[in-house]
Design a protein that fits this description.
heterodimer, A: Sufe protein. Chain: A, 3-stranded antiparallel β-sheet, 5 helices, 40% helix, B: alpha/beta, Aspartate Aminotransferase, domain 2, 2 domains, 4-stranded antiparallel β-sheet, globular
């Protein structure tokens, strides 16, 4: 199966690989997937607590090229968005931007789940209730 | 100059040897006759060519030419061998013993027979990929008509104790079928010494053309018969009807002759390259060779690189190097290789595996390039892997409750 140029570009030059301090109150961490399924994604956001703007985002991913590209693109999109804008990122936007084939849609779902998990982690740390999300498009 | 891409997937298929192609060419346009045409010279020429090839094929495995049934390939051979015995020996019993790491052509054939009344025992393999002979012995029943165990495995290259398996089958009055696809032409296979009753193999795994294979069917001690699965003109002693693929068979014969003459030299050279590759890649932390290293094909190495995913790993070099992964990220099921899982490997290691299959034209330069490309990509992806980071921090990844999708 051939990968799209955008997937190859993110795979070859991933954006925002790294680790933020998960103990910090301004950092939200989402760890999703499972080694058995061949995909584990960790996505972290750093939030300016007064403005609610995401000032930094980092990821580490165990998975195929599409999983790496989905998380790399997600971190790019997250930076500069507010938390409220970030929750609206839809996996199908990632699919479209990266031109993912149907068998790789689950990679984008995982990235969307990672974003939401990171946001909820941040909310819980700061005394807010977890948001309940509908199922993404699989 | 190193020419890219490099082909290291010789368990999937092999390039045709130019000497094989040369032998085949006259049988397309000039000598196009049907080997079953008995009344003119076109047919005689074709028959003569097929007879010669039959001898070349037989000689490679120590068989009599009359024991070679030409087929379209090993999937057909597996089907004909197993279904043919099941139908022919129905009055003797309905029990078949096979193992969980067989090729799908064997497993699915057995599953098919289960629907029509066969009882099939699927032996588990040990962590090194070999079957346990005591388990085989214990599984034998008075109704056992067939033991079907592959000679060598396509994913990890382990070579089963064929002689011992054959002896157990014989002792209990059952026939022994083996899928010899990966072994024939690569390591010495002798149907007499090994005690094989029926064996499927194919040309394209040994530098011959695709679409042609053979089923060895023993004629003496015991005389074995298989029920034909294709009805028609009664070719191949009534066991496989259909006009013979004369150019393919000629190429198959030539490929067998070359394998017989060059096997020792090829093995010596290729196994050195395989060992060089494997020893270098074993230097990477948390890399594991899969399968019994002592009982293994000389040209295969299957290695898991823990904490990186196989398909992601291949993407790092797959424009330059062609090989296979046990990961199944592209399949809808997301299930990794059933062969690696049968060894007891965790899903994480099964997803992290690469299969290297070297061949007749593999060079040291290609191996050096591969060592560097694979090592660089593993290290790069580990820097990106949350599991690697956890491992380095001493977190027990198996103890984490992962959310399943």
């Amino acid at each position: 199966m051939a990968y799209s140029d955008k997937v190859i570009d993110h795979y070859s030059n991933p954006k925002n690989v790294g680790t933020l301090d998960k103990a910090s109150k301004s950092v939200g961490t989402g760890l999703v997937g499972a080694p058995e399924c061949g995909d584990v994604m960790r996505l972290q956001i750093e939030v300016d607590q007064t403005t609610g703007v995401i000032t930094d985002a980092k990821f580490k991913t165990f998975g195929c090229g599409s999983a790496i590209a989905s998380s790399s693109l997600a971190t790019e999109w997250l930076k500069g968005k507010t938390i409220d804008e970030a929750v609206k990122i839809d996996n199908m936007d990632l699919v479209e931007e990266l031109n993912l084939p149907p068998v790789k849609i689950h990679c984008s779902v995982l990235a969307e789940d990672a974003i939401k998990a990171a946001i909820n982690d941040f909310r819980v740390k700061n005394g807010l209730a977890e948001l309940v999300f509908e199922q993404s498009h699989v | 100059m190193l020419k890219l891409p490099i082909y290291l997937d010789h368990n999937a298929t092999t390039p045709m040897d130019p000497r094989v192609l040369e032998a085949m060419i006259p049988y397309f346009v000039e000598n196009f006759g049907n080997a079953a045409s008995r009344n003119h010279s076109f047919g005689w020429h074709a028959e003569e060519a097929v007879d010669y090839a039959r001898e070349q094929v037989a000689q490679l495995i120590g068989a009599d030419p009359k024991e070679i049934i030409f087929t379209s390939g090993a999937t057909e051979g597996d089907n004909l061998g197993i279904k043919g015995v099941y139908e022919m020996y129905a009055s003797k019993g309905n029990h078949i013993i096979t193992c969980t790491t067989e090729h799908k052509a064997v497993l699915d054939t057995c599953k098919h027979l289960e629907k029509s009344g066969a009882e099939v025992t699927y032996l588990e393999v040990q962590p090194d990929g070999l079957i346990d002979l005591k388990q085989l012995e214990a599984a034998m029943k008075p109704t056992t008509i067939l033991v079907a165990i592959m000679y060598a495995n396509n994913e990890i290259g382990v070579v089963q104790p064929v002689k011992e398996i054959a002896a157990i089958a014989k002792k209990h009055g059952a026939l022994f079928f083996t899928d010899g696809v990966q072994a024939v032409g690569k390591i010495p296979v002798d149907v007499i010494a090994d005690g094989i009753d029926i064996m499927a193999f194919t040309a394209h795994k040994m530098y011959g053309p695709k679409g042609v294979g053979a089923l060895y069917v023993r004629r003496k001690n015991p005389r074995v018969k298989v029920t034909a699965q294709l009805d028609g003109g009664g070719h191949e002693r009534g066991m496989r009807s259909g006009t013979l693929n004369v150019p393919g068979i000629v190429g198959f014969g030539k490929a067998c002759e070359l394998a017989r003459l060059e096997m020792a030299a090829d093995t010596e050279r290729i196994s050195k390259l395989r060992d060089k590759l494997e020893n270098a890649l074993k230097q990477i932390d948390e890399s594991y060779v899969n399968g019994n290293p002592a009982h293994r094909l000389p040209h295969v190495s299957n290695i898991s690189f823990k904490y990186v995913e196989g398909e992601g790993l291949m993407m790092g070099f797959n424009k330059d190097i062609a090989l296979s992964s046990g990961s199944a990220c592209t399949s809808a099921s997301l299930e990794p290789s059933y062969v690696l899982k049968a060894l007891g490997l965790g899903d994480d290691l099964a997803h992290s595996s690469l299969r290297f299959g070297l061949g007749r034209y593999t060079t040291e330069e290609q191996i050096d390039f591969t060592i560097k490309a694979v090592t660089d990509t593993v290290l790069k992806l580990r820097e990106m892997s949350p599991l690697w980071e956890m491992f380095k921090e001493g977190i027990d990844i198996d103890a984490i409750q992962w959310a399943h999708h």
